[in-house]
Amino acid sequence: MEAGMRVMSSPIRPQSWSWAEFVSYADSVQERAEFIDGLPVLQAAGTREHAQAVLGTATSLRVSLENTGCTAVTDGVWLRVGEDRFLPDVMVLPAGEPADGAREVTEALMIAEVMSGSTELRDRGRKWVAYRRLPSLRAYLLIDTVNHHVELFTQRKEAWSVVFLEEYHSITLPWPAEVTLPVHLLLGLSG
């Protein structure tokens, strides 16, 4: 390991970077990286269960949103919140987002994070605090593939509420059209 480098899921050097320095770095490495508090944060490769949950969630949303103008995307586009750039596992973007060729978006209707031992604290803490600042956000999903449940945070007026759902439940999202998603598909489990 090079001097000044740290383990994954932590900043790789102590001094702040500019956004341009980060983009140059991110383009030169194969690892996924987020830009948080002026520092690049590497993302560890996920497990098979993580990949299945991301695919199950994105596919279910994409099919359900087909005629709404909204789209579901996976971690290829940065979500900008203030000066930070995050790579959520899955996002539902409003119609027209992102523009062709865009590398970042500033709006998301829904964000899903598949938690792991190394990301759970950040998914529940730093990211959730940042995501709540998005005026467009209507729902936040925390997907737990180990315990086979989903936490659905939804916004009603000025307050957020949470519902805990097991693999045999379904989630109903009222926007942009009513969408019902079986939790077992979000967990990447078969029928």
UniProtKB/TrEMBL annotation:
**Superkingdom, according to UniProt?**
Bacteria
What is this protein's name? Putative restriction endonuclease domain-containing protein
Record domain Putative restriction endonuclease: where = 19-173
